[in-house]
């Protein structure tokens, strides 16, 4: 194995050995600080001087392979590298890995299982410390069999029965936080536009909404839970039912639904937040921060998902019983929620 010298050409251990008048094995022992190697002081000094003179740098990959350990962490994903807000998972994992002396090797397989298997095989050959297996949205996955051969942490996805530690957003806490923000602004009749797509988000956010409503002493009203497609069209289509419900505030399953609701309310002559408050979920900056008024929302903690997953993988953070480590979804306050006049709030 070799590295480039100061002037460009590759400098090998053989070059260093020749200059120092020792064997290649002696050079290897010196540059890798081989414990127990019997090397005389003079030989060690000559090797060290030759290393400096020739500008030799040990190949980090060769060093980790020879030692049977690695400072590499693999990250295999389906599409997060090409998804604007979910790409923060990579950034969080990369920053945390670097902080602890590891380098992140990232492969975005884009859903191609053959490419995914090849990537995992390559990572195993390079003796990665472990692999983070991530998805761009929270859902159930099938774990590739190749991951049976290395420590693995699932990120933003889960696999029942796999026994693998799992780092996911706390969907229920996020739904509760969003609803509590509307309650704290004085709203008592709060609608929830929920997705029609089965998912942990569908179940968890509804559970959080209901828990917050009931904790406030308000009877849960099924008619205020309005199903809709999880996109702008879904939010727009739900508008007539929301207007008819008499709700003074709406918690939307995601920011795209909220964007559609903005359009629908505007077409009905209603203003946000003067006539109705709107809360989103996800904190997609390209949407939430640029609506008029800017959308209050709950963020999916993608950066922290990546960072926590690295800490779990390298043993710096324990995983609770059950193997699931939830990560809190923070509230992002903007201008789509304001305090309701007391006279306008429905008694609890």
TrEMBL record:
Q: Where is the HTH lacI-type domain?
A: 11-67
Instruction: Give one Pfam family.
Output: Peripla_BP_3
Query: Which domain of life does the UniProt lineage start with?
Result: Bacteria
The keyword Transmembrane appears for this protein: no
> Is Disulfide bond among this UniProt entry's keywords?
no
Q: What GO molecular-function term can you cite, just one? A: DNA binding
Q: Keyword annotations for this protein?
A: DNA-binding, Repressor, Transcription, Transcription regulation
Q: Where are the transmembrane segments?
A: none
Q: Which PROSITE patterns match?
A: HTH_LACI_1, HTH_LACI_2
Question: Which SUPFAM superfamilies did the record assign?
Answer: lambda repressor-like DNA-binding domains (SSF47413), Periplasmic binding protein-like I (SSF53822)
What PANTHER family does the database record attribute to this sequence?
HTH-TYPE TRANSCRIPTIONAL REPRESSOR PURR-RELATED (PTHR30146:SF148), LACI-RELATED TRANSCRIPTIONAL REPRESSOR (PTHR30146)
Quote the protein name from its UniProt record: LacI family DNA-binding transcriptional regulator
The organism is Microbacterium alkaliflavum
């Amino acid at each position: 194995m070799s590295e480039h010298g100061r002037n460009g050409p590759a400098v090998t251990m053989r070059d260093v050995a020749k200059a120092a008048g020792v064997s290649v094995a002696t050079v290897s022992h010196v540059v890798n600080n081989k414990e127990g190697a019997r090397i005389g002081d003079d030989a060690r000094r000559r090797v060290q001087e030759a290393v400096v003179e020739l500008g030799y740098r040990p190949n980090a990959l060769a060093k980790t392979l020879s030692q049977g350990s690695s400072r590499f962490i693999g990250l295999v994903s389906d599409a997060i590298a090409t998804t604007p807000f979910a790409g923060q998972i990579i950034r969080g994992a990369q920053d945390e890995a670097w902080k602890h002396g590891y380098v992140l090797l990232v492969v975005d397989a884009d859903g191609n299982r053959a490419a995914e298997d090849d990537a995992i095989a390559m990572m195993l050959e390079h003796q990665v410390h472990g692999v983070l297996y991530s998805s761009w949205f929270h859902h159930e996955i099938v774990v590739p069999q190749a991951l049976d051969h290395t420590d693995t942490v699932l990120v933003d996805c889960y696999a029942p029965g796999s026994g693998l530690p799992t780092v996911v957003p706390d969907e229920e806490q996020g739904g509760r936080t969003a609803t509590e923000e509307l309650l704290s602004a004085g709203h008592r009749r709060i609608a929830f536009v929920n997705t029609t797509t089965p998912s942990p988000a569908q179940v968890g956010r509804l559970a959080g909404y209901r828990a917050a409503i009931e904790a406030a002493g308000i009877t849960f009203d099924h008619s205020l839970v309005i199903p809709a497609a999880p996109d702008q069209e879904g939010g727009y289509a739900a508008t007539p039912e929301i207007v008819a419900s008499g709700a003074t505030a709406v918690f939307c399953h995601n920011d795209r639904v909220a964007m559609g609701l903005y359009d629908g309310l505007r077409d009905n002559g209603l203003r946000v937040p003067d006539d109705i408050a709107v809360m989103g979920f996800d904190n997609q900056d390209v949407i939430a921060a640029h609506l008029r008024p800017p959308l209050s929302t709950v963020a999916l903690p993608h950066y922290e998902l990546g960072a926590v997953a690295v800490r779990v993988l390298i043993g710096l953070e324990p995983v609770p019983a059950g193997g699931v480590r939830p990560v809190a979804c923070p509230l992002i306050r903007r201008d789509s929620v304001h305090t309701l006049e007391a006279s306008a709030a429905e008694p609890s």
